[in-house]
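tool_log.txt
---
The assistant was asked to compare two proteins side by side. It first ran the structure predictor on the initial sequence, then on the second. Raw inputs and outputs are pasted verbatim so the downstream comparison step can read them without reformatting.
(1)
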Amino acid sequence: MPGLVELDVSNNQLHGKVPSFREGVVVKTGGNPDIGKDKPQAPPGSNPQGKSGGQFKKNNIGAIIGSVLGGISLIGLVAAQHVESGNMVISIQVLRQVTNNFSGANILGRGGFGTVYKGELYDGTKIAVKRMECGMMVEKGLTEFESEIAVLTKVRHRHLIALEGHCLDGNEKLLVYEYMPQGPLSKHLFDWKEQGIQPMEWKRRLSITLDVARGVEYLHGLAQQIFIHRDLKPSNI
């Protein structure tokens, strides 16, 4: 695969030897304690035939774009010992802990679908947790929400933020994405003085514009299924 730049198989409960790749290819294997071992270590008292919780397919509602296209549609993430189709199902208890019970101090932003919180997992991985608005979830329905998650987990592009996991617990519907430390593009375009940062150079603006266009092109016609972002703006990039 001469075009391969990065392979991310984190948090998939994989085991066995990692194959060799050409120089320059980044391989991420975090969250797989049995990587390099012939057989995985079964946790005490575990039932390899059983599944914790119900059958959670996946879904979502708005895709997030980014060179940094970063952060706004849905969110839910990692830690419960349950994986389906490469998407991690996480307990509400874990997400409450890593966001300090959804503290206002951890709010990254608010959107039409809910509020995004910053969190940090026990291994130090930073995440963005989207807590869906209850009203929106009632309107959408659980089945539709799950089917959308299933579709979004298949969307993979270098300029799109991938859905890493989710949590469905009673009225709580959460989605988890990779954390983007630079924040939204709007901060660098409009709020740089207030943030005490340098204004973005025009060359960098052009580069980001092209990256956004490539992400949108993928969503609109190159993915297995066509997606419409519906809310593309600097604060969502």
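(2)
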Amino acid sequence: MKTLSGLIIGLLLGLILGFGAGYNHGRGAPVLSNPFAPYDAGSRLERTLEEFMDETRRAIHKATEE
């Protein structure tokens, strides 16, 4: 019985920690950060667009360099 209760407690803790880590990973946050912190999709979108623009500028510069 002691082994079974230890197994159940371990599974519950693993489920809770795995949910938090998986949720953070899915939204692009650091894995060990607070999963209940407010999620600012606007800043993530802005950062992604800036990276896209930088890559586009580099590609255009590389293509017109010759």
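---
observation on (2): DSSP finds two helices and no strands in the chain. The chain has a mean pLDDT of 88.
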